Amino acid sequence: MKSSNGYEIYVHIPFCVRKCDYCDFVSFACGADVHKMYFDALLRQIDETAETVGRVPVVSVFIGGGTPTVPDAQYIMAVLCKLKEKFDVSPDAEITIEANPNSASVEKLKVYKDAGINRLSIGLQSTEDNELKMLSRLHNYEEFLETYRDAREAGFDNINIDIMSAIPGQTIESYRRTLERVVELNPEHISAYSLIVEEGTPFYERYKDGKGLPDEDTEREMYYLTKQLLHEHGYERYEISNYSKPGRECRHNLGYWTRVPYLGFGIAAASFDGEKRFQAHSDLKRFCAGDFSAETETLSETDAMAEFMFLGLRLVRGIAKADFKKAFGRDMDEVYGEQLNKLATEGLLINGDQVMLTDKGMDVANYCMSEFV
After folding, report:
1. From 45, 51, 176, 209, which residue has the greatest number of CB atoms within 10 Å?
2. Bridge partners of 123?
């Protein structure tokens, strides 16, 4: 099924200088020869996909990883040229690339800007060098500042900064310093995530028992501090972990949370056509050899409705009941009346024409979302 309003595109670049100890994304360190093979395959995959779906309209592109700024910048330019050749990329499309300070040189940043990338997402995580070292990040705060200044010099006027709370050894005071230093830089967008210790990572082996991590009360205080301090500096929360200046919300992520169809390119990348999901394999050798196969899942109406609810309720603005009726031909109250009334009675949800979580509901969002699964 083709989307009348356009598709989003995600491009996965799995390369890093070194994998961070907390990361469970599909990423690894490889040499320039592997980079070339991967990008050659990526261009072939785009060609093959275009033959299948046609010249569809594209409203946003997000290049993530891994660390997309590790390979030669000309590879990124080639991918964007191919996307524009094969699809109708809107002239005002939001085009984002993720960047790490240790690999985003001023020369690369200028190439990205010339290639049409208009949004940069920089992985800072913390302004405290000891916390960066704890996370096994390769940059320090001063190197981040240099990258940020270089990005402004290269002409980027839409920058996101990623920060992280609940880092081992982090205190309320050190996290406040990170928040205050970041808002002083005046980025357009801030993503504030809490560290999740994922199974299968080195961090899991070290911290699976919770020892060495900030306790639950400290983590909760960091969470409230984020909301308060960012609000005071003009950053409004529009999604559970994302804050922006007015009009600078990440359009690509808004599309994801509202189930806009998307095409995924690269290993482990997912696609969604409005009815089916496709999950690509994560085998680098297979991909470079031209195997672009993916597992397909056709969503039942029940699954699609549940997804509509738990994705849409991540947004502060919530979900319009009229949109649910338009999507599924059924009243939301008919399908989820019991759940909506329960959460409203608990003070976690506002149940009107627009359904949204309260501040209290956002605080326990996972519990609220589980009601619809």
Report:
1. 45
2. 162
